[in-house]
Amino acid sequence: MRMILKMLFRNIMSKKMRCFLIIFSIMLSTGVFFASIAISDSFLESVTNSIKVVVGVADLTITPTEETRYQFVSRSNLEPYKDDIDYIYGEMDTSAIYKVSQKEKVALSIRGMEIEALDILYPFGIVDEINANEFNGKKALIGKDFAKTYDLKVGDSLKLQINGYNYHFEICGIAAAKGPFNKAKGATTLVIPKDCMRQLMKLTGKDNRLFIKFKDGADVDKLLKEIESDYATYEVKRVYNNQSLKLQLANIQSIFLILSGIVLFMSAFIICSSFKVIAVERIPIIGTLRSIGATKKVTNAILLGESLIYGLVGGSLGLILGVGLLYVLSIVMQDMANVAPGLELRTSITYTALQQIIVFSVAMILSLISAMIPIIKTSSLEIKAVILRTFEDTEQNKKVGLFIAVICLIATYGLTIPTYDPDDNLGLGSALFLTLIAIVLIIPYLVKIFTKVFGCAYNVIFGNIGLIATKNLNDNKCIINNIIMLAISIAILITINTSGYNMVLSSLNSYKNAYFDISVSSAKYDKHLASKFKNITGIADVYENYEFDDLKVEGTDQVIGTVKGIDTEKFLEFWSLSSKENLEPLIAQLDNGRKVLLSNQLKTSLKVEKGDLVQLKTESGTKAYEVIGFFNNFMNDSDYAIVSKSFIKLDMKNNESSSYYLKARKGQELTEITENLKNIYSDYGLKMYTKKQLELNEIEDNANSTSLMQSFCIIAIVIGFFGVVNNLVLSCIQRKHALAMFKSIGMSKVQVTTMLMIESLTSALIGGIMGAIGGILMSYIMCAVNKESFQMQSILVYIYILTGIVVMLGTSIIPIRIFAKLKIVESLKYE
Fold first, then answer.
1. What whole-number percentage of the chain has pLDDT above 70?
2. Vertex 765 angle, CA 460 and 262, to 5°
3. Do the beta carbons of residue 561 and residue 616 sit within 8 Å?
4. Would you say 212 and 62 are in contact if contact means Cβ atoms under 8 Å apart?
5. In sequence order, which residues have a C-beta less than 8 Å from that of residue 694 and are 6 or more positions away?
6. How far apart are CA 425 and CA 436, in angstroms?
7. DSSP 375
């Protein structure tokens, strides 16, 4: 055993560069895999912690609605739940206007709270410097952003208009931008004493909002349902529901896992090639050991022990790299998180011991399995063949690989195009893997076809050197492996960049189907606001938009991302939808009962057809909507359902518009309209975006998504480059004897260089063509499953193929330099 260990470590240290290559491949692949499986939980915790700084730590809120008889909330119905409740705090809310100047007015949200409640609901040091005994009467606590904007300080008087009356408040403190004072809350918020607010509202002892925090271990979902039934006419909701974010992160994590799987595939290919090198180099030693009595188990143990050490070191370093990648991904994903405008996410990373164990196990398995094939192949040799090196590389049935490749391509189609479930990212990942496997299996046959077709041309142009190069392409597996690595790298590059390009085009095309000019949202509810907008100079028409997010479908685990309530008479004047059927009569039917149009993605995921009922969970209970038709997507979003605004407003107990879409009169400057609206409705807290601004914002969001995928692309290219170098080393070892023979019979350096250049150029062309075909196929699959039109930048394909040629020609310098330094006698005696 001691001798085996000594030999094992000596073998590892004798080839430091190869040792680095194997460990680097394992480290990179396992690091990426670790970041992929941990990113969802880590980012979810980061977002949740950051949002709690804004919304507080309570679990539920209860507020009156338009159907509520009295506009305040009683605590009496919560008595049965006292054993599950940690605390309840109430407040009085209203709105106010702060008049900055004659032209500028600011809409404010005023919250009447006790200092104790503020401190417990938002335990982030907001009120550390506020004396609770002094917080009484007409005192106000303002945020530092508001104070900075209007140059306010402690002791200043603040004139506010509340319910048409003017009041003067003394600023008693300036709070940090947390909790109600965070800009992500939307409207600017001030806090005044609750008793003072009750006096102003003439509602002594009343609250119009309750905050409820449950004890640890309480079943929040169950309690939420029960409290909802007790407060039937009130709005009972979670302070923050992360279900939507979980779904979004699940999709992102699936993409990461697919990409990391491709990286693992490439790493396994490299490690397998590396152990082929190791096995070839160890053959003389293995022959010696076997001749003096060592068993196959002993020689196999040396090679397997070597692979275990590589896995152990690579896995350990991969965990360290994975933590760093996880942190970087969390930072990058902050730009993608559309959780709340102005929300400042605090980057934090979270991972479990189980995830570490899984990743470490993957590293060990990756190393062992990748090394197993060359080890088994070597151990099967007879002693005589090992010592005399008379063994030959037997070929398998030539038709088997091609047959498997065809099966892979058929399976790829079957997994995706006909009956693809948009939530089935496993199916998409499997399809992409099968495509790569098909490329790997087809390339050897393509090489044979290519050399037969162009062999004669090579003979005419380059003479015997061309024939030798053609034979080498056919017989040398290292060259074929280089072609495979190049093809995989190019296929991944094309797939990721084409997907990003199509995402941008989809964003641009979606706004071509929108016929509005300006999008407006208001912090202040006014049911007559749409008609007021229409009276503004320059505005031709106004559309009131009603949208409700994350509605659960009863009887399934599905959530519909957005349910849009439309005005059936005006909808098609502001948007057009892509569909195989005529949607105009179907849209008109939406007012004739609870009917719904679903996106094709929802049709697949919900498994519904025309005439089926979709049970939506609304504020009024579960409501059945009949499916009457389908469309492709709405504004590049395929998680959409369209219903009549009349029914969804009634079911959701909400008449408040989500936003307004404005059409400008012909020739009217949009900046004039937005400035006019801003001045006239300064106390409404309007947020306005032109269609062009919305378009640019979406393109930027897509660019952030693409940049994440491109980071994996870079990793794949790095692994591919090292794979090519590794195969060249193996090729040089295997061809050392042949090159020495060529040199001994008078082949010049120029002739060898020509031969190697022919091999490299041909390899690059074949690898580039197969990579382009594979990339186009995988890109088409991704576009088809997302119901997007397939478009790609052809120039990129040529650039990648040319880059592959440059890389292959550049790396051919290695064997050329080896040939220049080759000593004929030593190389021939090596056998």
1. 76
2. 155
3. no
4. yes
5. 511, 519
6. 17
7. H
Closest CA to 275 of 368, 361, 363: 368
Residue 669: half-sphere exposure toward Cβ, Cα within 13 Å: 4
Q: Which residues contact 87 (CB under 8 A, 6 or more apart)?
A: 120, 212, 213
The region of weakest confidence among 64-73, 126-135, 199-208 is 126-135
Q: How far apart are CA 74 and CA 90, in angstroms?
A: 10
The distance of Cα 545 from the centroid of its chain, to the nearest Å, equals 29
Letter for the amino acid at 574? F
Which burial class, exposed, middle or buried, applies to 140 when counting CB atoms under 10 A from its CB (0-12, 13-18, 19+)?
buried
108: nearest Cα among 173, 192, 35: 192
Provide the H-helix boundaries in 292-352.
Answer: 296-334
C-alpha closest to that of 766 among 448, 461, 475:
448
Name every residue whose Cβ is closer than 8 Å to that of residue 7 and which is 6 or more positions away in sequence.
285, 302
3-state secondary structure 720-731: HHHHHHHHHHHH
Read off the DSSP letter of residue 76: G
Closest Cα to residue 346, out of 334, 329, 328? 334
Find where tokens 């790493």 sit: 267
Nearest to 662 by CA among 794, 536, 826: 536
Phi-psi region of 555 (alpha: psi -120 to 50; beta: other; left: phi over 0): left
Summarize pLDDT for 612-647 with one digit per residue, the tens.
Answer: 999 998 888 889 999 999 988 777 677 889 999 999
Query: What is the rounded CA–CA span in Å between residue 367 and residue 374?
Result: 12
Dihedral through CA 13, CA 14, CA 16, CA 19, nearest 10?
A: -70
Tokens of 123: 């335990």
Contact, 568 vs 590, CB < 8 A?
A: yes
- Which residues does 194 contact at the CB level (< 8 Å), separation at least 6? 90, 91, 92, 112, 113, 114, 117
Residue 557: partners with Cβ closer than 8 Å, 6 or more residues away: none
Terminal Cα-to-Cα distance of the chain (whole angstroms): 29
C-alpha–C-alpha distance, residues 250 and 156, integer Å: 49
Tell me the HSE value of 610 on the side-chain side, using a 13 A CA sphere. Answer: 6
**Token pair 């040939």: residue:** 819
Q: Give the burial class of 701: count Cβ atoms within 10 A of its Cβ; 0-12 exposed, 13-18 middle, 19 or more buried.
A: middle
Task: Give 30's Cβ-side CA count (13 Å radius).
Answer: 31
Cα 148–Cα 153–Cα 156 angle in degrees, nearest 5: 130
Check if the beta carbon of residue 226 is closer than 8 Å to that of residue 146. no
Q: How far apart are CA 658 and CA 566, in angstroms?
A: 12
Averaged pLDDT, 229-238: 85
Contact, 35 vs 27, CB < 8 A? no
Number of Cα atoms under 13 Å in the Cβ half of residue 387: 8
Q: What is the chain's alpha carbon radius of gyration, rounded to the nearest angstrom?
A: 34
Please determine, for residue 242, whether its predicted confidence score (pLDDT) is greater than 80: no
DSSP string for 712-770: HHHHHHHHHHHHHHHHHHHHHHHHHHHHHHHHHTT--HHHHHHHHHHHHHHHHHHHHHH
Pairing of strands 139-143, 165-175: parallel
The overall longest dimension of the chain from CA atoms, in Å, is: 109
Cα dihedral 200, 205, 209, 212 sign: positive
Specify the DSSP class assigned to residue 514: B
Name the pTM for this structure: 0.63
